[in-house]
TrEMBL record:
Leader peptide range in chain numbering: none
Keywords in alphabetical order: Ribonucleoprotein, Ribosomal protein, RNA-binding, rRNA-binding
Protein name in UniProt: Large ribosomal subunit protein uL2
Keyword presence, Chaperone: no
Sequence ranges assigned to domain Large ribosomal subunit protein uL2 RNA-binding in this UniProt record: 42-118
Quaternary structure and interacting proteins, as annotated: Part of the 50S ribosomal subunit. Forms a bridge to the 30S subunit in the 70S ribosome.
Region (Disordered): 223-245, 258-277
Length: 277
């Protein structure tokens, strides 16, 4: 992926940057691997808003991504590299030798025509290949990592993400997360070799509010701009400080820097080193 700068014909376009999509090889998705995406607008089954600042956005299809990588010992070939409007990473359409087609998250360095393989045994350390963590040497970049064997990948799926394998000891592998947190993951969990594609995604500047609305992001209003009935920071004449010892959420709970993770959570014992602030 490259970043494209356009002529500054307006204040929004002056600061905005765009994806050039030069790595995309197909314009239309595989019809058998897409489903309708119902827009929820941050609402629950009663129609009440449970997540603010969501709504609108352009219509799009969901691509069914193979996060389990459970086509074991059947070689597959990358036929197309495609854009997925639901994620920052590129996806690749894989044709397996038994005739099945699947989408996978494409890592950096994987191109059309390359072959990939997923196995429960040790296979070649090559971008796109998937195997259990116990077969990954120390210092290798991986992505698409399971937290529980067979449950599908949960870690390092976003554009540009990568996790370093620090080593394997006992029943666990030590992983350094994108946040710099070091934690233990069962060594039988599958992972894919390489860094997730499209690392330049983080450098794109939206530039104007209209592009955020197309992404389904509604405006966020400052608490200090509200009335006292609407927010703990609201009220007063003109601009002023919030007048509190610490900032609060719209529901009156402490905000900014407050730990929200349950100190009794079972997986706490698997975290060796917390992420850096």
């Amino acid at each position: 992926m490259g970043i494209k700068v356009v002529k500054p014909t307006s204040p929004g376009r002056r600061s905005a940057t765009f994806d050039d999509f030069k790595d995309i090889t197909a314009k239309e998705p595989e019809p058998s691997l897409i489903t309708i995406r119902k827009i929820q607008s941050g609402r629950n089954n009663q129609g009440k808003i449970t997540v603010r600042h969501q709504g609108g956005g352009v219509k799009r299809y969901l691509r069914r991504i193979d996060f389990k990588r459970d086509k074991f010992d059947i070689p597959g070939k990358i036929m197309t590299i495609e854009y997925d409007p639901n994620r920052g990473a590129r996806i690749g359409l894989v044709y397996y030798q038994d005739g099945e087609k699947r989408y996978i998250i494409v890592p950096v360095g994987l191109n059309v025509g390359d072959e990939i393989l997923s196995s429960k045994n040790k296979v070649e350390i090559k971008a796109g290949n998937a195997m259990p963590l116990k077969f990954i040497p120390s210092g290798i970049e991986v992505h698409n990592i399971e937290l529980e064997p067979g449950r599908g990948a949960k870690i390092a799926r976003a554009a540009g993400n990568l996790v370093f394998v620090m080593g394997v000891e006992g029943d666990y592998a030590q992983l350094k997360m994108p946040s710099s947190e070091i934690r233990l993951v069962n060594k039988e969990c599958l992972c894919a070799v390489g860094q997730v594609s499209n690392p330049d995604k983080s450098h794109i500047v939206i530039g104007r509010a209209g592009r955020q609305r197309l992404l389904g992001v509604r405006p966020t209003v400052r608490g200090t701009a509200m009335n006292p009935v609407d927010h703990p920071h609201g009220g007063g004449e003109g601009k002023q400080s919030i007048g509190l010892k610490h900032p609060k959420t719209i529901w009156g709970k402490p905000a900014l820097g407050v730990k929200t993770r349950d100190h009794k959570k079972r997986s706490n014992r698997l975290i060796i080193s917390r992420r850096k602030k």
